Amino acid sequence: MPVERLLPNREAEELLKLTAELARDELKPLAAEYEEAERFPREQFRLLGKSGLLGLPYAERWGGGEVPYEVYLQVLEEIAAAWMSVGVGLSVHTMSCFALAHHGTDEQRDRWLPGMLEGQLLGAYALSEPHAGSDAAALSTRARLDGDHYVVNGTKAWITHGGQADFYTTMVRTGDGPTGAISCLLIDGATPGMAAAPPERKMGLTGSTTAQMIFSDAAVPAGRLIGGEGAGLRIALSSLDSGRLGIAACAVGLAQAALDEAVAYAKGRTQFGRPIIEFQGLEFLLADMAAAVDSARATYLDAARRRDRGLPFGRQASVAKLIATDAAMKVTTDAVQVLGGAGYTRDFPVERYMREAKVPQIFEGTNQIQRMVIARALKKS
Known about the structure:
It comes from Amycolatopsis cynarae. The protein has helices at residues 10-37, 42-50, 69-82, 84-103, 106-117, 232-268, 280-308, 314-339, 350-356, 367-380, and strands at residues 123-126, 142-146, 149-160, 167-173, 182-188, 194-196, 210-221, 225-226, 270-271, 274-275.
């Protein structure tokens, strides 16, 4: 069923209409096939680029759409509802552009940002490492300045689009101090000395390639340093605030898709002479699912509107990510229950939705980390 949205203007309404049509006609029909085959949807990302959807929240000067974040996130929700792997990929790509768009020089932005925003290039965000996940400041991938190049050595882990991306926004250690020694490099995907390990074998989002990236004396031009040496952790954390909103929107899209499947099935499935949606046990279950979806959507929109107004939104982003991803896990699980035995089969998409709902509770900062962020903000208030 179409989501009733309160959008800020007619242009946003037209954008959401275009997105819904593209998602329905070009993405949803392919999702099950690609996920089953673990096939990366590169052409679909090119289609998003041609449709102007890969750079929505960024400036028109460099090829972006310059739309409010609350509008971009609702576009993202529509895409994730049709195909979660593509929605998550769009969110990651948008986050990968953040460092250059917000912390690069005009010369750097003029040179690289148009290709990143107009769909020619696909991005990845390389922060985590095998021994530095939630503790991002513990990263050990090192970049040593040698003349006009940084020589990079180390391993990045859990990289969405690893081995598929055209550029990697990569956090590296450039000094011996703690957090101040972390810097951000925009690394070309064809850089010699950089290679992807075999993709991870995942329970869900199997169309989205996730892999370690291994750097062995990879030479990166010094001009690809973003924001100056020592600015990397600050850039990474600000990127994550916005990225968490993207994941929240994707989780809401996934939950909405599961709710729609459950309602449609409950209307069509008859037991004891009437549709099962008329039984109170199912009515209450579906009502709780709908309330969870609506509540989760409200949290990410609240945070996005604060961001659009230039207000602090870090705590609200953590609340949105926590609420939306926990809701997606519960709603997709309940959708399987509504469908009963049919929900446990691959004849219906809800079993895939349930598998896909788990990882949003983990990436962009686990939900335990989100609770720590929220609690720390409360202590400072």
